[in-house]
Records
---
Amino acid sequence: MTNALDLNAPVDTLAMEFTREFDAPVEALFRAHAEPELMKQWLGPHGLEMEITEWDFKSHGGYRYTHSNDEGTFGFNGTFHTVRDNEFILQTFEFEGAPDMVNIEYMWFEDLGNGRSRLRGRSICPNTEARDALLSSGMEGGMTEGYEKLDALLKSL
């Protein structure tokens, strides 16, 4: 089954929202977001190598990772504000190339039954310029490629 990414940015808001369904139980989908060795296998587009330098996956924990390719190394960091197993993650997200432009990200994990799940997300940017820059950066293509890699990973869990 093809599970397309639905990404939109409502007009006159600072938010981006997405929905994606997976042919995997919600527990496996959540685990792929919780365990660093699994995250490294799918987060980001093809052609990037990921290194996780900090990962404290719990409420009030934090993370830092880099993506690298021939063009350079790009760092990202944030705080996990709320983690509820198999249900919800609230975190901040900062691209270190644009300091002080921190997004607030909400992710809801939904059990659809029959071994299927849905991930819904909402990312709130600090201003419209930051939101529009993310949207024009190729973010949608990167998310699509990452979720395609996640589909393959989930088959092995």
---
Amino acid sequence: MVLFLVFNHREDFAYFADICFKSFGDRVKYWVTFNEPDFQVKYGYRSGTFPPSRCSRPFGNCTYGDSEKEPFIAAHNIILAHIAAVHVYRTKYQESQRGSIGIVLHCMWYEPISNSVADKLAAERAQSFSINWFLEPIIYGRYPREMQYILGSILPEFTTTEKQKLNKGLDFIGVNHYTSFYVKDCRFSACEPGPGTSKTEGFWAQSSQKNGIPIGEPTELSWLNVYPQGMDKIVTYLKHKYHNIPMIITENGRRKTEALMHKETYLYTHNVSCFYIGYGDVNKADSTIDELLHDEKRIDFMDRHLESLSTAIKKGANVKGYFAWSLLDNFEWNSGYTVRFGLHHVDHKTLMRRPKMSATWYKNFIAEHRKCKGPDQQQLEDANDSPF
């Protein structure tokens, strides 16, 4: 990620993308330039908990970095690298290969903690300083107005030529969604220091509770809440804000965690600041394979989130697909093999794979809903090679 502090490496990324399009475009029909760049810049260049581990106090304790400037430089170069790759695909390959290209953001839903104007604006700022930070430039050619007003000269500017290339710079929005939070204003009200509360983060604070009542179904820990309604709300929000550009739910799921952290259910966090990517329960040290395969909570999580997604679709959201995270237990970014998101269990010693109950449930879910479709709709989806 250090390369995204360097201007000319955008061209290197476009060259790399060109090789991928040329080599695999006859088989790959859905291209993603970056996965969760909003998290990459926050944790790679602000808190320093992700590579390249750059930050400055009070956001983190790193050898190098500037937490108040580098996240915006890195994000700016990632956006322009994305557009460079999209330009290559659209001008050289898309017409013949008939594929689509987009970007994936980690999309949490932020609910205003009150009906006050200040808290409603804070919830919008939370989105502006996360997903809209990337989507507004890529689709509209400009940074969110909230970012422009608060950051001023800290925010890099696009040239006239870059703005022209940025217009409608994707074919679909990839949505990774797991959880939701309440948000309160920190611009006109005093807040304890924490994620989001500083000027360069947008002056907002998140909480999983409102007046002591959790936002969703609580688990053993007070800050772990299941809020399926957030799926409907974030998809509907994106529908209205970006004129119903096609969306694909690229990640949604829950995880089990190896017995080296807590003895209770807990929420997966990317860093000590508690930005969450999913929820799950901890495997006991003496867990048997049979216990690991019976993942009823994952089934409940998926069932309720798919129902919420169905609500958004019935209201007109242009959702083209849903991908559960994940097919297999895998190497999970900075958590390695200590967490399990898979619908299939993997024995990390023997690599033996076994379907969990959730895999069978999901297979039956897809089969049942395909039966509900008319022949005309099914033929259309088959012709379009729909990922759903």
---
Amino acid sequence: MKVLLVIHGLDCVGGTERVTTHIANLLAEKGNQVSVLSLTSVDSSPAFTLNDDVTLLQPKRTYSSLRKHLHQLWQVIQVRKQFDVVIASDTQLCLYVWPLKLLSKAKVVAWEHFNSQVVTRFGSRWFGRKIAARLFDKIVVLTEQDKVSWQDKYQPHPPVSVIPNPCAMTVRSSIEAASIKRVVSVGRFTSQKGFDFLVRAWSLIPATTREQWQLHIVGPTGSASKEVALLIAKLQLEDQVIIAGASHNMEQVYDSSAIYVMSSRYEGFGMTLVEAMARGLAVIAYNCPMGPKEIIDDQFGIIVPAESIELLAQSLSALIEDNQLRSHYQQQALIGVKRYVPSKIAAQWQQEIQTLY
């Protein structure tokens, strides 16, 4: 099968770019002829490594404003007869991919990387979803919850399939009894990630419980960086809550921690939760839309009512104080993450592609 994945730009370091690269490589390993069309990167190296048998297609020059959008549309139209399946890796890109339904025999798939409930009405992603719901051959979402949301909001004509993201992190075979006393949370410093909730929850844990522990927040700066830093200072937690910045060695970040917390207001899936489970951390997450509850599944970690600072503090206290409980959830995490191993996700993608014909 000749497969094309279309993405904004493969030279950016982000979750969509990483998982698109991973799926392209996995589909190529399944024997497909795979190409990636990177619409905005010009003669640049991809941020994540593509296999040698995956072809990277890029524009030769940049354009601005309207000409940029017309050129991106033209790039897609130019390859209209070369592929059996075209996957728009972001529903915004449906705005560029839809002509293939009229100009070629290729089957077209919309791949939702985000939470369909969080969208600006009449924005580009909203329009992209509307187009996909009427013209495309299949919609792929990351969670069962988002499948229901998609069907309710957009009434799609094509089928909606659920394929979670694969875990690129190596899964540990076992967890050794450790004396690590660190809690970690990972993500860009934006309001979405709810680090303000997490810092406030940390302040509610009795001082005697957390006195030997630290909370590390790891991720690039963002719109909420200053707010979180000021909150840490206001609550006099500078010695215990560490803003660690972005890291290029996430395996080391997880391996130096015992507990992972996801305090997000919303998620598209919750990839860092899966990564933490792969490295054997006990995990806690808010029951936010969408992803964490399905990943934890009421047995592989602790799920907390969304935005409840008090209950988040209680759950953290329980894991910090009780070594047995913490060890139990560390072992459960290693069991739960097996649902996201690359071989299983690749098989799901291959099956979905084959059912198009």
---
Amino acid sequence: MKLRFWDQPYRLDKMTLKELWTAYFLHPSIQVYILAGAGCAYASWRLADTIRPVVLAAVLVVAAYPFVEYLLHRYVLHGRMYRWPWLAKAWKRVHFDHHRDPHDLRVLFGALYTTIPAITVITGAIGAIAGGLAGATAGMAAGFVVFCIYEFVHSVQHLPYQPRNRFLKKMKQLHLQHHFQDDHTNFGITNPLGDFVFGTHNPDPKNTRRSPTVFNLGYTGEEVARFPWVARLTPDLDEVQAAREGVGRKKPGGAKRA
């Protein structure tokens, strides 16, 4: 296997679990998260007078994570960021490309310029409540660890592999429903708690009608005509044709980073 991550296509639907482990640790963003998490943990250890704020910060971050994951996924990633030219490129990279080609690992992982600020601000703020600067750095360390777990679990959900664990198996089913049947339900990726609380949990694929926006998140037809910036950034989309005929699933092969 080549050492440079971007030299390979990394089609999750054609990978084994063992191949995913290798690709996962080769991915530059995972390497950055590991280093950042270690740095934050070291800073917290140096700053803390006692272990209490460190532990409390980590516990609060882990407890809050299912709701943070849900709210960001539902209201930010499935929002209308494409309507602003200065947000169009980020939205295309972090979610539009993934929904158009769900099994391409290169667009499954979040972009560092979006994930790093989100992780540091959200988990740092939660940790600061627990214990000032020591708590903030501990919260960020926990945030990077949890996000690494999230990225791996999300990747496994797109493999031709069934987890042995019943909970993970169910989460995979719910996530694939979100991608291929109804993009308006099952926003939780590692945990369904947010879906239960906010009423978007749908465990029944047999009685779920296929949403027309599973592969375009609503960016299709008239929306393309009014807000063309994402289409102009997408090599396989013709702006005029997409506005007239709509946007469908990307044909596998040739996916590129944005």
